[in-house]
Amino acid sequence: MDILSKCYEFTAAREAIAGGYYPYFIPLEDTEGTEVVIDGHRLVMIGSNNYLGLTTDPRVRKAAMDAVAKYGPSCTGSRFLNGTLTIHVELERRLAEFVGKEAAVVFSTGYQSNLGAISAVVGRGDFVITDREDHASIIDACMLSRGEMKRFQHNDMSSLERVLAGCDDSAGKLVVVDGVYSMGGDLAPLPEMVQVCRKYGARLMVDDAHGLGVLADGRGTSAHFGVTDDVDLIMGTFSKSFASLGGFIAGDDQVIHYIQHMARSLIFSASAPASNVAAAAAALTIMIEEPERSHRLLEIAARMRSEYTRMGFSVGKTETPIIPIYIGDDEATIMSWKALFDAGVYTNCVIPPGVPAGKSLLRTSYMATHTDEQMDRVLETFQGVGKAIGLI
Predict the structure, then answer these.
(1) CATH number of the structural domain 58-289
(2) Statement: the pTM of the whole predicted model exceeds 0.90
(3) From CA 210, how far away is CA 11, in angstroms rounded?
(4) What is the CATH number that goes with domain 7-55+291-389?
């Protein structure tokens, strides 16, 4: 059998492109953050993770450009060898302080951060326990590790306890969860989770890609719940609120030191370019000095959740600027996405395997820089589309 036969037999995406309803890999001609231009068509962007609106902030852009002028476009090596700059080290110090940990290490992407940290810490004979709705990077990291992966029902502490009770008492155990779930916008119940982990001698890692910059004046989900000291590892990414590309892991100094020397995705990958590091550092400064940005973001999110619910849309248990519009049927979800797109509203169409069968949704997310007028347009458009398609 030809191993590439599956590639030639995959036709669904090309059929969708030909039919004019393909919702992925859409090239943007221009972006002002809250609005984008596609084929000359201007849309309000509510499909971005640019939560604080900092990708267009002139201070962040200038920091990136100044770094290119000083260091060039690449470090041309891994962090382990010649790819560590003083600005990497300074950002790591600041990030650790920001999230309330002793130390941090910066990776080239958020995906690599999870891949490296989890596979370094979890070894043969260990257990790694994940929520069934954890991000794909966590699942891939567990597969890369030599430990045994177990999963528990989403945010179900009884399920977590049953899984931990079934693990060998003498084995190492790491529980890994998202702080904010990227599709549902709901929070992991960290206070209860800490108690269960303590009972069974398990360590806890929180992927806070979507919580940092958003909750607790930007300090994330652990700070929001007041359990920072009880969470062993905190992961963050630069591709959301930090307006850049990269990621980091923060924790006890000795643990981070170990990860630095054992994480394959750090040792065998080129380091984050100076421009990315400088942009993230500038975003961090703004995050600290302007907490009103996250406050504005949460105000917008609260309004949109309330209005969608009032209209009759199902938004689930979200508590954040990630607001899913649950539709269920794949075809209806695609039709809704296309109607909104044509009417000038950019959302994310999520169908299986991105979500379980029967749970297709439109993922919407908001920025601190969205205006009230833009949100009025979005709500008016959603109401019109929802009635036209029969969703409300």
Answers:
(1) 3.40.640.10
(2) yes
(3) 33
(4) 3.90.1150.10
